[in-house]
What does this fold into?
Amino acid sequence: MDIREILKTLPHKYPFLLIDKILELEPGKRVVGIKNVTINEPFFQGHFPEYPIMPGVLIIEAMAQLGGVLAFKSNDEKDKLVYFLGIDKAKFRKPVFPGDQIRLEVDLIQQRVNVWKLKGSAFVEDKLVCEAELMAMITDKTLEK
It folds into this structure.
């Protein structure tokens, strides 16, 4: 999937869309994607101006967005949203810098009705930089506030 298809699939838009390309997609099983990290990212203005490092929470968010692609492409339903429910076992192994390309891999661990448990891993140059277990829920867009 290229960026045009990702934009059609996820509700996220600039500056919060953190996936640039989908390399592999096995509906109901796994997805692999790319995030190109550039100095033009708005978060680098404050994190940190003299030593820019991608915030770990945004690497987790990129994995969650990739999990959203997996969920949407595994279910042929319209007018749904994927809500992030939780993070477990998150570990940050190495910093991510401008110029890095993150390879994100998300595998389905378990699915119960509309709740998904996923295992996410992020790599830069084949080195693990972040990993976490994620939980998400697929729900109607009309969910009450």
